[in-house]
């Protein structure tokens, strides 16, 4: 078991003792020193070479923000975690701008503290690999791999279910294929992937681009947040103002880098066209254009398809009908209006989707046997095999629901003519 070495910097001796007590039973974490102010923290960082510095903000002589900035510049392999009673966004922004890896608001419990230290320590070790230009000692060489596939969900119409579909699709791909999947929330000014997955907003796109070599795979990996379903996620910033710092070129570079390490990169986008979205579309292998059965959504879908064709992305377009209901605009009418064939349809099951969102639990896990979940697994199957190949083979389904393999397509189930199923291709 590798040990993470920790330096505690806090001007209150009682607080330092409390932190040591919280970490007493953590066998893989060792407190190697204590500092009462920022200047002492800087000196001890040089002499003790800790993996992680727990840094208070309000300290005499040199405060924690200034000390963090100096440590980040002079000892870039050391991860700094800010610990403070100040939970305001302004302090968080200053800490992250100074180079802090993470931020804990007092009071915190032992599990929160230990988990944050371990995460920061892992980041430290990956940065060591990055700066040394080598591999972790004892790690086997990584074989060359085929680049993964970037799947972007796109619509300039709000309310079509992009984020819900993106989160559940990413989980379904991971569960159904057993391959590596990363979800990227590029709705930078208002992304909700963290809420839908019940994940803390730590390790965001805006933090990544502050790194000089943010396209280094090992460095980028350290910013990804793990989800219990098996996927990793690169989340949007908590502060919408930070969205303005991200460019389309940076997004394209990040997605191309993730393709080197992941089999599927599922990307959520915002409900308008900007430089970041164009960069995302550029990097995408397939673009799922979402539409629902209402005239405003139809108008936007027509516009979205036109935009993609003008950008010469015609071969990337897959039209997906979301929130499908049998009592409104029929798929054949929708296809005729758009002059574009539907690729897949997802049923409208609000009684399953809304509780799933409120619990922060993807419905493909909580309600794996439902029609909407099976539709998402079916969509994952189309993406994993390609449309032509998938047409002659079975669907992706969760292993415990193999009885759904022979189920008729959802389009045939939800839209019937003369009591016979209508299958759309």
UniProtKB/TrEMBL annotation:
Domain Response regulatory: 5-121
CDD domains, per the entry: REC_YesN-like (cd17536)
Residues found modified as 4-aspartylphosphate: 56
UniProt superkingdom: Bacteria
Keyword Phosphoprotein listed: yes
Entry annotated with the keyword NADP: no
InterPro entries reported in the protein's UniProt record: AAA_dom, CheY-like_superfamily, P-loop_NTPase, ParA/MinD_ATPase, Sig_transdc_resp-reg_receiver
Swiss-Prot/TrEMBL keywords: Phosphoprotein
Cross-referenced SMART domains: REC
Free-text function comment from the UniProt entry: May play the central regulatory role in sporulation. It may be an element of the effector pathway responsible for the activation of sporulation genes in response to nutritional stress. Spo0A may act in concert with spo0H (a sigma factor) to control the expression of some genes that are critical to the sporulation process.
The protein's name in its UniProt record: Stage 0 sporulation protein A homolog
């Amino acid at each position: 078991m590798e040990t993470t070495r920790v330096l505690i910097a806090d001007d209150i001796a009682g607080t330092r003792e409390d932190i040591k007590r919280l970490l007493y039973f953590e066998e893989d974490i060792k407190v190697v020193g204590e500092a009462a102010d920022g200047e002492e923290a800087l000196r001890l960082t040089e002499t003790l070479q800790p993996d992680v510095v727990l840094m208070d903000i309000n300290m005499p002589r040199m405060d924690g923000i200034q000390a963090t900035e100096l440590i980040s510049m002079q000892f870039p392999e050391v991860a700094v975690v800010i610990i403070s009673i100040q939970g305001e966004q302004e302090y968080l922004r200053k800490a992250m701008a100074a180079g802090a890896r993470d931020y804990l608001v007092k009071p915190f419990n032992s599990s929160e503290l230990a988990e944050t230290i371990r995460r920061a320590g892992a980041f430290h070790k990956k940065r060591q690999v990055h700066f040394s230009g080598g591999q972790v000692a004892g790690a086997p060489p990584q074989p060359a791999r085929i680049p993964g596939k970037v799947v972007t969900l796109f619509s300039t119409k709000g309310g079509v279910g992009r984020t819900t579909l993106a989160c559940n699709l990413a989980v379904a791909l991971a569960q159904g294929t057993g391959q590596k999947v990363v979800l990227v929330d590029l709705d930078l000014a208002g992304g909700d992937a963290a809420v839908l997955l019940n994940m803390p907003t730590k390790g965001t796109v805006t933090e990544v681009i502050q790194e000089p070599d943010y396209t280094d795979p090992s460095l980028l990996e350290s910013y990804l947040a793990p989800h219990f379903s098996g996927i990793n996620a690169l989340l949007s910033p908590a502060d919408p103002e930070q969205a303005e710092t991200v460019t389309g070129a940076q997004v394209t570079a990040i997605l191309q880098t993730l393709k080197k390490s992941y089999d599927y990169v599922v990307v959520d986008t915002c409900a308008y066209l900007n430089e970041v979205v164009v960069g995302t579309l550029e990097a995408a292998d397939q673009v799922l254009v979402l539409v629902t059965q209402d005239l405003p959504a139809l108008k936007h879908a027509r516009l979205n398809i036109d935009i993609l064709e003008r950008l010469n992305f015609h071969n990337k377009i897959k039209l997906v009908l979301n929130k499908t209901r049998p009592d409104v605009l029929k798929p054949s009418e929708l296809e005729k209006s758009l002059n574009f064939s539907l690729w897949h349809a997802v049923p409208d099951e609000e009684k399953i989707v809304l509780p799933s969102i409120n619990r922060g639990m993807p419905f493909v896990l909580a309600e794996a046997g439902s029609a909407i979940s099976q539709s998402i697994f079916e969509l994952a199957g189309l993406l994993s095999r390609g449309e032509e190949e998938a047409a002659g083979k079975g669907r992706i389904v969760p292993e415990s629901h193999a009885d759904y393999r022979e189920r008729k397509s959802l389009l045939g189930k939800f839209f019937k003519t003369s009591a016979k199923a209508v299958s759309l291709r």
